[in-house]
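For reproducibility, we list the full input for the potassium ion complex.
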Amino acid sequence: MAVMSQAFCWPTCLHGELGGLDLTGERRKLRGQASGAFVSLKCPLRRSSISIVGSERGRSAGRKQVRTSVRSEAVAAGDKLDSGTGLLEHEDLNSDEEQVVPPKNGLLPIENGAKFTPGSSGIEVDSVSEADLKENGFRSTRRTKLVCTIGPATCSFEQLEALANGGMNVARLNMCHGTREWHRAVIRNVRMLNAEKGYSVAIMMDTEGSEIHMGDLGENSAKAEDGEEWTFTVRKFEAADLPERTVQVNYEGFAEDVQAGDELVVDGGMVRFDVVKKLGPDVICRCIDPGLLLPRANLTFWRDGRLVRERNAMLPTISSKDWLDIDFGISEGVDFIAVSFVKTADVIKHLKSYITARCPQEPIGVFAKIESSDSLRNLEDIIQVSDGAMVARGDLGAQIPLEQVPSVQQEIVQLCRQLNKPVIVASQLLESMIEYPTPTRAEVADISEAVRQRADALMLSGESAMGAYPDKALSVLRQVSLRIEKWCREEKNHENTRLQELSAALPDRISEQICNAAAQMANKLEVDAIFVYTRRGYMAQLLSRCRPDCPIFAFTDSKNVRRRLNLSWGLIPFRVDFSDDMENNLRRTFALLKARGMMKSGDLVVAVSDITSSNLNENLQSIQVRKIP
Ligand SMILES: Nc1ncnc2c1ncn2[C@@H]1O[C@H](COP(=O)(O)OP(=O)(O)OP(=O)(O)O)[C@@H](O)[C@H]1O
Ligand SMILES: CC(=O)C(=O)O
Ligand SMILES: [K+]
Ligand SMILES: [Mg+2]
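The corresponding predicted structure, in tokenized form, follows.
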């Protein structure tokens, strides 16, 4: 379905609802909401268009004419739209097309729009990806994934829905902030959104770590002006009782470790202070670089141009509070845990075995945040044992000279791709949009660079957590990603990365070679998509690593794997049930995708699979090129 034009409030609902092909239910709702609105359906020819035309009167902006027109491959003349199942009923049955019959144990239905009806025929895919595929065609779907930090600006169901609708693939929860109750409520909202509205937003929990940071401020933020005196204290205050120009510090040893003459750096240089004197638990500082102080901002102190690493350097990477948060994350079923200030590979191994012991069935992806000089020293070892990494440029830029951050970013992104681990580029991508509705040109250039490096994902921090324009910021990420990806494909300026061999064992080597070959064939033959049938997601990940020109449709039978694949470059994860019979799987997915208007006859795909046959007890790894019948 291609939405030709779209405007204002309710056609946006229409658009969502059309994704689910569930019109009747929504129509009722629409009529209730906007009197005078009408919806008419026309399906003049088989495989031609449904047009939805609506007009809306009496809005505050005055009289408005709104037209939305939608094309669907899946609809035939005389079709009825059934709100109960969300499926189309064909009245015209002189069709040579394969009927989509609900298979026993089969594919779950459209988890989209307003309704979700388990048990009948369907296939689960992110409603935003689905709309994207239909509107923009295969080649133009977005490959770079988007992570949004959730905070006070985005924690309600409606705000989360707006982000999901805007393309958020992963919601990040920073355990530096908020109570567990607050985080629990957000997680439940995201789960509800997924279940009710057909998204598959994954959840990433980001640990606090033991680094030094400020406490909550009396207000959302505070401005420190040049020459002002501020007190940094280890005394405890309720936020409301905090004296003026006072900042609490979480690390008890702070007032002892710091010395007069040190430089105190907030959030990697957003604001700077000179330490004037110490008064017991209070440290009096003078602002030398003015700027905005945000609650819980990171603090480092420098002496003679060097980062001071006193007793705080001995604090554990995962604090006792972090372990409690991790237990909480496990019990809430988060998809990823990002570990702050990782220093060595051991801490990641430890956490992974802890998680495996706690929930062997549902592995949680453990991401290493690269944000300290220690993590750079052990970079390859750390990434090797992690499930992915984050270039956490905020703190990284406070620990290494700023001018080194861009090359370090590129190094981490490339290493992650070589080692087949998804990588997120994070922090300050659109910092100015915390306050302003448009980005700076430099910010757009920064996003472009990360997209050109083909990072798996980009992340919003304060922009989405507490900024004034979270949806706009997300939309900038989306638009810039799409444009730069297209440009890269047209320029073919990415073709020359040689991928090292990853595996030693034969079955894994076979998977790897199949994926490399499939990606190469897909590029040479200019196919519309690569299909991969995968249980654990490994093959899908290997294909993503090749960064092929076409999108990768990853079919998995696990909801958890589907959510986790959401973070990997170029993958569009679907949940379906498999049989061991590859031919059967292919036919069924072709038919279902056609019925949903996501593919059409004549589309060319490369299909790979590593499904183990339970009957034959052997791996049936295969690669095929197929034209959709
Ligand atoms: N759950 C939350 N509750 C309140 N404010 C939040 C929350 N999450 C983020 N924020 C606000 O958004 C700002 C940026 O958030 P973010 O979590 O990305 O910080 P960061 O410094 O990039 O991450 P880290 O603390 O891991 O280094 C924070 O300084 C804080 O003001
Ligand atoms: C994201 C994060 O933790 C940082 O940039 O420091
Ligand atoms: K954190
Ligand atoms: Mg950080």
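The first strand starts at residue 49 and ends at 59. The pocket of magnesium ion (ligand 4) is lined by residues 340, 371, 392, 394-395 (CB under 6 Å). Both points were considered when choosing residues for closer inspection.
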